[in-house]
């Protein structure tokens, strides 16, 4: 399972104009068989898909991150065909 955030850091003004900023998360789930249903969650939001003929599913999702200085941890949790969790961090630096 692969979970990468883009960007991983934001440095700039943190205003109350928006309460969150969107970041992109690239997700890759692989199995040893083709056409396998996969279920996973990104920060609690559920997703369902089916792997391709190589047994892989790749997608990119948008994750809202609070405009609050600090390190924010994002979680990718696969629930099917097997259970596994992966963490990624995003750092918000306010000036």
Q: How many E-type strands?
A: 8
> Which percent bin holds the helix content?
under 10%
Q: How many distinct helices?
A: 0
Largest sheet: 5 strands, mixed
Residues in β-strands, percent:
over 45%
Structure write-up:
- This protein is mainly β.
- The mean pLDDT is 89.
- It has a five-stranded mixed beta sheet, with no helix packed on it. A three-stranded antiparallel beta sheet has the order 1-3-6, with no helix packed on it.
Condensed summary:
The chain has 95 residues and is an all-beta fold.
Please name the defining characteristics of this protein:
95 residues; mainly beta; five-stranded mixed sheet; three-stranded antiparallel sheet; 0% helix; elongated
């Amino acid at each position: 399972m692969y979970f990468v955030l883009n960007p991983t850091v934001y440095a700039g003004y943190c205003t109350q104009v928006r309460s969150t900023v969107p970041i992109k998360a690239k997700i890759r789930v692989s199995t040893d068989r083709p056409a396998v249903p996969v279920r996973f969650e990104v920060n609690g939001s559920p997703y369902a898909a089916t792997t391709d003929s190589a047994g892989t599913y790749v997608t990119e999702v948008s994750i809202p991150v609070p405009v609050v200085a600090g390190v924010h941890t994002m979680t990718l949790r696969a629930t099917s065909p097997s259970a596994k969790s992966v963490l990624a961090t995003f750092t918000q630096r306010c000036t």
